[in-house]
Amino acid sequence: MAAVQNHSEENGTGLGDGFLHCPVCTNEFNTPKVLPCLHSFCFECLETSLAQGDIGPGQAFLCPICKTQCVVPARGVRAMKSNIFLVTLQEFFHNKTLDPDQECEACDSGRAARKKCIECTDWLCNQCCAMHVKVKVTKDHHLVSPQELQSGKYDALIKDSFEPLICSKHGEPLRLYCSDPACSAPICTTCKSTLGHEGHAAIELVDQAVRESTQIQALLPNVQRCITSTAAKLTNLAQEEKLTASIRKKMHKAIDDRTEELVDQLVKQLQEYAKGLHQQVEDLAKEHRRDIAREAEDGRNRLQAASSAKAFAEALLGFNRAEELVAMSKEVRARLGDFQKPVDATPPGWRQPRLNPPTELDPGLLATMFGPLTFEGEVVKSVITKSFSAKTQYDEKDCALCDVSIDRHGNMVIVDRENRRIKAFDADGNLKLVTAENLFRSPNRVVVLRDSQRILVKDEKVLKLLSPDGSLIGIFGEHLKQPVGLAQSGEGEVLVTEWMGGEVVGFDEKGMRVRSFPCSCEAPGYITSSPNGNVIVSDWKQHVIKIFDANGKFLRQYGGHGSGDGQLDHPYGVCTDRFNHIIVSDTWNNRIHMLSEDGRFIKTLLSKHDGVEWPQAVTVDKEGRLVIVEQHGLIKLYQYMA
């Protein structure tokens, strides 16, 4: 089709100039035809453009504005629906606009027009205006200046002055609406009594317009959510493009650095291999960028389509004239129905490359020596990066660590039940916070609230709220019989397991209860929430992990008492990573399980052979490292992902 001009200037009514001008010829619409996507074109422009593209009846074409696929009717462009709303809208704006050269339409003096009589629809000079208000028949008419017309104050009167749509069969106004499913069309009073509509239920056209308006209004909120999520996706895609370039640059540098480490021994071989890896990274980045570009294009088209449909619908509703509402409602509702589901704003996934650590030089195994690419999210051999004791100078007893949470700065906030303190350490093991004596009786759970960075602590049967510096603020939420596990979802909901009730209770950050759902656990000890919204609860009496969806519906359980693969013995701490892996402290078996997001066993990450003893709680820090707190006071950090 022909090139489309972009018109974004508004005409003072909230409607873009594109509502009144054909995007092909840029002139005011002449016999506008509307596509299913609600974009309109002049009849001649559309017919000419389709002919130039050799597109005939029954063939598909793409709307040049939003790329929605449309089909030419069997009887050609002329059979496409006429956009009577735009025709009326053009007349409406013409009635409100004074041409600088407009002469009085009531006399032959040639004097300039100054005001418009809304009822007569004539522009009048000052002398004719003076006479107009003296004549008995017209003295009550509304004489309005151009400025008053543009203000919108008289829009309703202008609309009322329009002639109603006329029945093509009987020449009478279309005042009724035949609601019989076989008809569903405006009719006149004579139509009502004819054979085609006899016995059909009919209502006032204005009443049907109210119904249509209500249905359109109900569709608009989801369209707005679709627009918002599409815009968010475009933003995320733009960020992903920058991230891709950054990772690409970083990977090329890593490959070059690795090459320099080995260049003295196998210069030619290493450079050839590096060249291959360069190409692999380039291909991966190129493919991902193609995916990004494709989805970005789709997103822009969908955003344009949804925005245009929303604007068209809002304009139709704002115009609020029954004939147009009824005439256009079916197409408008059909189009708005295309945008009722929010768009997934997540950028396309890809296998982000990484370099494995190099091995000892082996001329016969160049690829192994160099280190192949690995990809983000792949599990590698767990390597300990840090281990330190949580015991401080303020402690009188040996530590008994129960739980851990990560604050905004990456500090590990842990619970020491035996010394009745909350402590915070940075990744190097430096003490950053320790609470005062006698603040707690028997603390054993903790979570750092994301927005406020306040620290929520379960102390016996009470949930206590601390400021970021560790001072007591007060009691959090309503009284629960026996709260145990604490966590916060990605949406900010504070999740608490209730031992006595066997349920999960949800609070907002202010402590207001928002919901609860049964978890059917004998001992719901720990709880976490995954990025996909699932809620995971550990039950150390049943020796299982239970997985629920975001609405509390039970999905699956994992485990059973024992020490074999897929079995647990007193599972305590549980957490998830950003790939939705579920990580479980199989405490009495001295090992750490990794599960898929649907609760299927992937592998044993760590065991007693790797130095893990009595792992009580787990979490993943901001750097993607697994943090394990052991019952007897050690905090250990492991790199377990590429």
Task: Write structural notes for this entry.
Helix 7 (205-262) packs antiparallel against helix 8 (267-319), helix 7 (205-262) packs parallel to helix 9 and helix 8 packs antiparallel against helix 9 (322-337). The protein is elongated and about 105 Å long. With 642 residues, the chain is an alpha+beta fold. The longest helix is centred in the middle third of the chain and has 58 residues, at 205-262. Strands 13-36-35-34 form a 4-stranded antiparallel beta sheet, with no helix packed on it. A 4-stranded antiparallel beta sheet has the order 14-15-16-17, with no helix packed on it. The model is unreliable at 6-14 (pLDDT under 50). It is built from 10 helices and 36 strands.
Q: Pairing-aware structural class of the strands and helices?
A: alpha+beta
Instruction: Characterize the biggest β-sheet.
Output: 4 strands, antiparallel
End-to-end Cα distance, whole Å, is 49 Å
Note the overall shape.
elongated
Spans with pLDDT under 50 lasting ≥5 residues? Answer: 6-14
Q: Write down the Rg.
A: 35 Å
How much of the polypeptide forms β-strand, as a percent range? 25-35%
Percent helix among the residues?
25-40%
| Largest sheet strand order | 13-36-35-34
SS elements, strand count = 36
Roughly what is the average pLDDT, rounded to an integer?
88
Number of helices: 10
